[in-house]
């Protein structure tokens, strides 16, 4: 039960690993939202400041409007800067919340203390729902501003208006905390689910490598991903069909997983793919040819020591704007030559 409460408060009813996997997307969403929010706030508060020059009802709030404009402009700047420093997106969130909640408090307690508070209550419920953050952090922020409002109200309001405002602040504060927690949970879980579906759509479920769908989508990108050189390594497992027939598909799956792991150890997970039942492709970016050959040799030794065999072909290019399709065809052609050499002189029974 305590673990469930902890996960709800910190990770929106998911878990630490799942939450961390979508942190980048959440930060970018918050950055863009905070930028738009601050820009609109700057425009609206500027309009109210202009109206305060001629409308008596707005004139008493001039200092508040000036503060709001300055604060909003600062937030716009931080939102832009957060594109390079993602962590600043959280600063931007709470600056946006602060702009409106401080504005609501100021209107309620400094410029119109004789009136019952409405603006702060509305902003307290509405503003936090726009952003995404850990429910506990958002709740603590709201509690802080509720306390600030009550302190300011006690200093500026009296009688029944004070009693009603404090009661409303507590009731609407609880409502705001509950609503932001529920909405944040839904948004975070939505991002987590989207991320899981994305991973499933691009990951081979047996080996954990990128699948053919991911391979086809990323091929056009490789032309611009390298600076000095690129190499395509094409691997085809020998003897899978025979192993399945003699020892069962579980043994065949174990062989496929072992060869996938051997390839991943040498060339990493990011650019390694299972493109067919027993075929794999890996790309080595900006790695010297001698180092690639050493890694291929180490991979083949590991596979042979396990009692398996794979045909391997590679095509290396140090030319800019290399046609990746031709690179792949070259590696595949060499792989088939290696495969033919392996089976050369073996009769079908041996295979």
Structure description:
The protein is α+β, with helices and mostly antiparallel strands. It folds into 2 domains: 2-201, no CATH class; 212-343, 2-Layer Sandwich (Alpha-Beta Plaits). The chain is built from 14 helices and 4 strands. It has helices at 2-11, 16-21, 23-51, 56-59, 62-81, 88-111, 119-126, 135-156, 159-202, 212-218, 240-247, 249-267, 289-305, 324-343; strands spanning 230-238, 272-274, 279-285, 309-317. It has a 4-stranded antiparallel beta sheet with strand order 2-3-1-4, with helices on both faces. The protein is elongated. It starts with a helix and ends in an 8-residue tail after the last helix.
Largest sheet: 4 strands, antiparallel
Average of per-residue pLDDT values: 89
Estimate what percentage of residues fall within beta strands.
5-15%
Distance between the termini: 57 Å
Structural key phrases:
alpha+beta; elongated; Alpha-Beta Plaits; 68% helix; 351 residues; 4-stranded antiparallel beta sheet
Compact description:
The chain contains 14 helices and four strands. With 351 residues, it is of the alpha+beta class.
């Amino acid at each position: 039960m305590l673990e469930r409460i902890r996960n709800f408060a910190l990770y929106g009813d998911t878990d630490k690993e799942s939450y961390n996997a979508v942190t980048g997307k959440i930060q970018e969403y918050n950055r863009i939202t905070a930028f738009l929010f601050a820009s609109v706030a700057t425009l609206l508060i500027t309009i109210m400041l202009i109206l305060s020059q001629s409308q008596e009802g707005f004139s008493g709030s001039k200092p508040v409007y000036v503060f709001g404009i300055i604060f909003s402009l600062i937030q716009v700047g931080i939102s832009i800067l957060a594109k390079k420093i993602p962590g600043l997106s959280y600063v931007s969130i709470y600056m946006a919340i602060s702009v409106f909640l401080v504005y609501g408090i100021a209107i309620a307690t400094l410029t119109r203390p004789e009136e019952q508070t409405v603006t702060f209550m509305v902003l307290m419920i509405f503003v936090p729902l726009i952003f995404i953050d850990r429910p506990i952090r958002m709740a603590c922020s709201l509690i802080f501003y509720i306390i600030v409002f009550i302190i300011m109200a006690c200093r500026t309001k009296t009688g029944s208006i004070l009693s009603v405002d404090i009661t409303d602040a507590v009731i609407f504060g609880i409502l705001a905390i509950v609503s932001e927690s529920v909405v944040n949970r839904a948004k975070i879980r939505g991002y987590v689910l989207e991320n899981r579906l994305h991973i499933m759509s691009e990951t081979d479920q047996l080996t954990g490598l990128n699948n053919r769908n991911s391979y086809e989508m990323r091929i056009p990108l490789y032309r611009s991903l390298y600076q000095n050189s690129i190499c395509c390594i094409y691997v085809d497992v020998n003897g899978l069909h025979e192993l399945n027939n003699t020892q069962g598909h579980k043994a065949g799956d174990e062989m496929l997983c072992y060869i996938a792991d051997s390839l991943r150890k040498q060339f990493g997970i990011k650019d390694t793919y299972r493109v067919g039942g027993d075929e794999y492709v890996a790309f080595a970016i900006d790695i010297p040819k001698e180092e690639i050959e050493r890694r291929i040799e180490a991979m083949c030794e590991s596979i042979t020591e396990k009692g398996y065999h794979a045909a391997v072909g590679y095509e290396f290019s140090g030319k800019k704007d290399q046609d990746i399709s031709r690179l792949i065809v070259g590696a595949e052609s060499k792989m088939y030559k290696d495969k033919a050499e392996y089976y050369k002189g073996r009769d079908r029974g041996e295979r």
